[in-house]
Amino acid sequence: MTITLEGHFADxxxxxxxxxxxxxxxxALGPPSxxxxxxxxxxxxxxxxxxxxxxxxxxxxxxxxxxxxxKAGLLSKEPYQEPGQRTRYEYHxxxxxxxxxxxxxxxxxxxxxxxxxxxxxxxMLTHAGCDEPVASQVRCASGHDVPVNExxxxxPHEPEGWSPEPGEADVQGDGDHA
Length: 178
Description:
The protein has helices at residues 21-29, 32-42, 48-55, 59-71, 95-98, 101-114; strands at 4-5, 75-80, 88-93, 152-153. By secondary structure, the chain is α+β, with helices and mostly antiparallel strands. The strands form two sheets. It has a two-stranded parallel sheet. Helix 2 packs across helix 4. The two termini are 15 Å apart.
């Protein structure tokens, strides 16, 4: 079960994963501990000391992860000042950061399913409006659930001068996808 590759993607030797959307996303997210910092922001944490305490990470590690996530545009850094104290910063999810919610829900769901805790399920996400479980799913714009073998990866437009080889649209991907 793999993604079907069409257009210039069909020739797997002609393109690299170095600039694919997955590689760019992983670069923006940074090391795995940055995803934990981002997750903590989803839980409402926005002050440095709370990130350090809640994550059990060193101050230098949290500083580096926050700096990376701000630079990547996933968090914003806003100054605040308590009376009589120096200026400090709060970190807030940007639209770009909020739009990662389905990905983080999918990671949480996958971890609960395939890497269960020894004491059983640790997390259940539910919709506040109806109390039904929340799930991350792959759907087309018409609302159909789409299994991996029904996904086609094609360019939004072909590079100038490109023309398909006969039968190229029938080439099946090898599981490597962007």
